Amino acid sequence: MAAFRQPSDRVNFRHVASRTKSNYRGKPITPIEAPTGLDPKLVALGRRLFHDPRLSRDGTVSCASCHDLSQGGDDGQCFSIGVDGQPGDINAPTVFNSALNIAQFWDGRAANLRQQVDGPIHHPKEMASDWAEVLQRIGNDASLTAAFASAFGGPATAERVRIAIEAFETSLATLNAPFDGWLQGDDDAVSKEALEGFELFKRHGCISCHQGEAVGGNLFQRLGVMREYFVASRELRPSDLGRFNHTQREQDRHVFRVPSLRNVALTGPYFHDGSALNLEDAVHVMLHYQVGADEPDLAEIRKIVVFLNTLTGDTPKETL
């Protein structure tokens, strides 16, 4: 795909893998390859905006506040802290490889990364801002104004902010995970124990939801397929309703976008509510509630965790 030259407000990005290196051992997981077609000017501008707290009402919260690129693309908290020190309602998902998701947010209410930008800017517990305020602050910054003129040939608009942030977030692919090396034919890239964990991952049916390039992120599923996760004795939070909050369809109650398992070793705590503090706990919960294992075997859990650790790729370089 050719690089964009002069972007417009209608520009579209795609994350494209070439699929030419090998047959990837015939597995349902495929390696991540670098996204193409990104204009370096847009990526650089999006990077600046992603780290700019002036997108928030009081100038204290940036996208990077909740999606720290040095911490797996999230913030390591059960619930992120927004303006006025307010805790959010749901665990922040990683921004890494997010262009591969079928939709954005746990409930999938944004179709793509460009639509997703509006969510935190308007959310009263996140940035609590609006576009008029954001564009005024950008317009008062001569350097940012010049960057928009260079990238778009004109001033900042809400759509151009969305496009730039989308471009930067699309660039955040974590390449060269050890398991990708194994998929591409390097028998020494992962350990025997990791491969045993992969076999267990498939045998238990985890692969039915966690496959493809992102090892997940490409479908929606109910939390508690084989056993009821949201028991009557548990106090429900609004976010526990999942996709139902967006669609109001009963079949979407407690349904969430399946998270990607890329870099999952770096992105705890886990689940939409941050209730699993480590990978062992998360795997145990999934085996019990999603696939119906009566007493998940601890030795098997450890092997699955070893496999999951091989999905950690290179952190995208920061060149601010």
Description:
With 320 residues, this protein is an all-alpha fold. It folds into 2 domains: 40-171, Cytochrome Bc1 Complex, Chain D, domain 2 (Orthogonal Bundle), CATH 1.10.760; 178-310, Cytochrome c-like domain (Cytochrome Bc1 Complex, Chain D, domain 2, Orthogonal Bundle). Helix content is 32%, strand content 2%. The chain is built from 12 helices and 2 strands. A two-stranded antiparallel sheet has the order 1-2. Helix 11 (279-290) crosses helix 12 (298-309). The radius of gyration is 20 Å and the shape is globular. The relative contact order is 0.16. Residues 1-8 and 16-22 have low confidence and may be disordered. It is an enzyme of class 1 (oxidoreductase). This is Cytochrome c551 peroxidase. It is found in: Periplasm. Keywords: Heme, Iron, Metal-binding, Oxidoreductase, Periplasm, Peroxidase, Signal. One of its GO terms (molecular function) is electron transfer activity.
